[in-house]
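Hello again,

I reread your note about wanting to compare the complex against the isolated chains. To keep things tidy I'm splitting this into two emails, and this first one only covers the full assembly. Below are the input lines as submitted, including protein chains and any nucleic acid or small-molecule components. They are followed by the predicted structure of everything together. The single-chain runs will come separately.
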Amino acid sequence: MKQLLKSILFLLLVTSCTEPYALQSEDFEEALVVEATLTNEFKKQEISISKTYPLENIQTSIEKNAIVFVKDDLGTTYNFIETDNKYISENEFQALPNRTYQLFIKTANGNSYVSNNQTLTKNNTIDDVTTTVRTINGQKGVEIGVNHKDPDNASKFYRYTYEETSKVTAPKWVDSELKLQITAPYYDIIYALIYFELRTEEARVCYKTTKSKEIILKETTKQSQDIVEKFPLKFINYKNYDIAERYSILVNLYTQNLESYTYYKNLKKSAENGNILSPSQPGFIRGNITCVNDNNKKVLGYFEVSSVSSKRIFFNYFDVFVDENNLPDYFNPCNIVELEPYDYEGFREDGDEKEAITLRTKIKNKSLIYYDKYFKSNGTITFMLVEPPCGDCRVIGSNVRPSFWID
Amino acid sequence: MKSKIFLFLLVFATQFLFSQETNQPFTLEFSNQSTKSVFDKIESISNYRFYYDEKWLSTNLISGSYEGKTITFILEKIVENTELNFLIDQEKIIITKNKMIYTSLPDNFFTKSGNETKPSTKPIFNDIEAIKSGNLTLIGKESLNNTEDTYTLKGNIKSAKNGLPLSDVTVTNKSNKKTTVTDAEGNYSLVADYGENAIEFDGQGFQKQTRKIIIYNNGKLDITLSEKVNLLNEIVVRGKRRNNLRTAITGVTTIEAEGIKTVPLVLGERDVLKIALTIPGIKTAGEGSAGFNVRGGKEDQNLILLDNATLYNPSHFFGFFSAINPYATNRVDIYKGGIPVHFGGRLSSVFDIISKNGNTEKLKGEAGIGPVTSNVTISTPIVKNKSSLLVGARGTYSGWILKSLKDDQLKNSQASFYDAIAKYRHEFNKKNSLESTFYYSNDKFSITSDSLFNYSNLLLSVKYNLAFNDKHKAEANFTNSDYKFGIDYDNQNNVTNSFDFGFRIRETQGVLKFNYAFNPKNRITYGVSGKLYKINPGTVNPKYSISLITPLDIADEKGLETAAFVSNNYKISEKLLIDYGVRFSVFTALGASVQKTYLENKPISEATVTGEKVFGNNEKIKRFSGFEPRISAKYSITDNLSLKAGYDKTYQYIHLLSTNTTQSPTDTWKLSDLNVDPQSGEQFSFGIFKNFANSDLEASVEGYYKKSKNILDYKVGANIVLNKHLETELLQGEGKSYGIEFLLKKTEGRLNGWLGYTYSRAFIKLNSQFDEEIVNNGEYFPTNFDKPHDFSAVLNYKFTKRYSFSSNFTYQTGRPITYPVGKYVFGGAEYTLYSDRNKFRIPDYYRLDIGVNIEGNHKIKKLAHSFWNISIYNLLGRNNPYSVYFVTENGRIKGYKTSIFGIPVPTITYNFKF
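Full-complex prediction:
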């Protein structure tokens, strides 16, 4: 009986089963996605226009050949031209206070979209970008914060983006690299030639730049004064190599209005997982752009006109972590792999082989790169190889020194 | 003595022709003496001898003073206003009850061709043997002055078992086809034609009784009904029999706990509330979901009462079982429409659960053993024939079963529950009685090994019944409900984030209700009620001192709901009955509280807070009031066919907070306040009810249209737990639902059961002047529980008295869900585009359950009466989806489907009664 009871209860608990549920792609709904923030900077303004893509796809789809322009209340039209998957304004311009702006889009399939009227928000200046050493959840690190204030106590809603740049030096960089050349078949024999070549491009010092992806928002409605102090934007663990050599962060402060703030807040929430206490009801988050010829057509994204203030800071590791004695370890342990060049296994015509472990495969795939060599007593050469990030910083960042960079 | 006097009657019936009166004057004086002692006195001062049955004489004391009056005059005075007649035959005085002894036969007595003469002049001859055997009862005093064609028969009906009055017993005069039902105190009143009538008494669960009566005048007939010895299997769910034709209100169903035991249910748990789901108009969002959706109403719009105390969470074990112990339950009255005025505070329905009364005569008990729970119910008299105590308890063994399992995760998980009920009833006298119920239920479960959820209901109800007189009665009721919900999150790998979460709601209620039978045509109900709510919306405390959790206590909410109500049940004519009334409710949100104020003409959001208003303890925050008219009318086209229509208005001041698509035990409640308006609803309903003559077949078609306002919903991504700005996450929209419900029911016979089909829709509209408060373009969209087609069949076939087979089939349209229809990149990150809310549906739901019921043998002198039930739940093994959800895995969105019982589940249960 006990066994029976057990098995029945077991059924109760385990018959509640979960199985994959086929996503029906015929339900796919195409909608326009607009990401447009006009700022008070005098520059070529940018607007991204894309489309939703099916759940099973990976590639985002850009909305091509759309007519895009912004019109102000004086009738001035600013045209945007499609360039590199973005729409960039024909001329440089800046959003001005007390003007209202409206975004117009006509897509290639004939749909017309229009935003509501937006006015430039009040300009606020970042006073400081701060660095504070803190321990959060037992993890030591540096917290990048921001200070700003609105003496008029009027702005209240803020959005931040940032762009981090780290200087990275490849620890096992050498001035030459191994190259591979496969000969044409000569009486059914193919030769693979491995040879040295001096590096012609910068590969030792690079600059790794990443943009913020998450939505960072702050409001001061609950405060008596419109002051933001050391509002945390980013926390970097003290063992993260990003800050080891020299680190720079550019913080952009967008002053938002209530509506644009609420849109971003809801979008941010929808992407976060609900906690154990309150799972969320999913749904459509409405922006301020509507389809003129089909009012029920969903449009994603937002057109905002925001004052922006930017500030960049630089710091070196020991400027921040004054108590630390050692720099963080490099991204990669840079273990050395030794390989001999000789092998006579069956080549195919494309120069590939069955077992992809040999030197020439590594060189061909660029999965290991040259670091050093030595000769054994029998005269055979052994190559010492490392993973690419250790010898070629271009794997991590750009070898072009950014114009803003100050050492 | 009895047989002796009948003998006299026989003799005198033929001999009285020769009797004569005496005119000898008498002097007699007596005060406050019984009739018997007056007769004795007459015997002592004269030669008269009285012949009578002492039982006939009333115990009322009489007084009189006579000087120089004839014996006839004196006796006429004594028997005035009694049912007694007398005949003086020389020195013998024959007292008769009801019957009058005729001194002459009617003129046409010996002429067989004679047509019936007017009843007033025609003596009624009847079968003495019938009177002797109790099959014929004489009502009223026969008198030569009784010239009416019809008289009123009144009486009281009691249970033979415990002497309690029986309400809702159908009393039918078969002779003139008039019918009535007993009121709450067991009283009835019925019109009978002069002369012989056959009166049938039919109460649910009691043996039908037919009494032949001879009515001479207005009179009384009290009846005791015995319980049906073998009602098993015969009745599954009994609506109030023929009640559908009698009362004015539509949308009422009664479920008898005893009647449902043959219906196969999951894991053999007899469950009155789950049976409710097979009744048209009552649905649930999913198999394991707690809560009901009645006629398109949300889960929080049902007032679930156990002996008048509100039960906030009527479910056990994620909603698989209801928290009502079926063995201690008498019945559940479900009002889907036409909610009586003395109920209020919820929009959609009332589930009025009435527990069993204990036995006042002897110890009785019942016990059941099932795979998940066992239970025992014992009832005992405390003071014989006056007071009784019923105690019921139920527990699950799932706890130790889980622990004995090998799987580590299951081993560490928990699921256990128990509930207990005690009911004490004391009848001081016929006019005063007291009832008191105590109830406690407790649930513990864990989904993951680090979090333990628990909740409990504690209910207390005290009721005092007082009858001022036959017409005017009062009922005073005090109840207290205490519902707690908590989460104990204890993760040894994450001690700094371990916490205790708690929610609590307390409700204290007092109701004073009066019933006044103004006259036979008007029955008035009136009264007042007051309800005090106290809610602790949530507290979080860290479990360990090194915690990162900041202790948080959301300020308590307090509110007082008061109401006054009056209604009249007015019988305009034999064919037209109306029940009209009004409830006026007032809700006051009380401090201490800090309420936020928001910018006008801006959406309520954390961003638009303008300030705070501070309210002191018991200070009025905001007052709402609602005028709730409730009207229903019934028109009987024929005895077996009637039409009904009704209109109801209801207000609700408390709201369930749930962002889940189905009700879950983790949901909490919130009171109306400065920023949250009360919900209100209106329902128009109509119905056609037909009973087929000479059979137990009943058919009904009911339709409704409902509109509601300020239905609570949530913004996308709402966070409702521990939120200090809860109102910023809420939306209040309009609801609209309509439906038509068909029910065909056969209550008796070898094949019994019912078929129900409902076509219904339930929509909600969330529109606003602000974009972020608009859902689905501000148009009506289907609610989470909108399941247009709903068919259920509960059938029971009795092979023999001991064996029966039952089956239960359900088909429902799949419920609506919000489905991802694409993804997009914004600001460098990937987001999901969801369809319009509830645009898609999960696949349809259907399920067949079967069961075989075996009664123990039917020897009367048996120690215990046993009952076996073998059932298979979900015989077809249909993998009904419960929910479909989507997660992002490795950057790609994947869908999953969860089902609860995807395979047939067999069960055996055993129970016995003694």
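For quick reference: The mean pLDDT of chain B is 79.

B.
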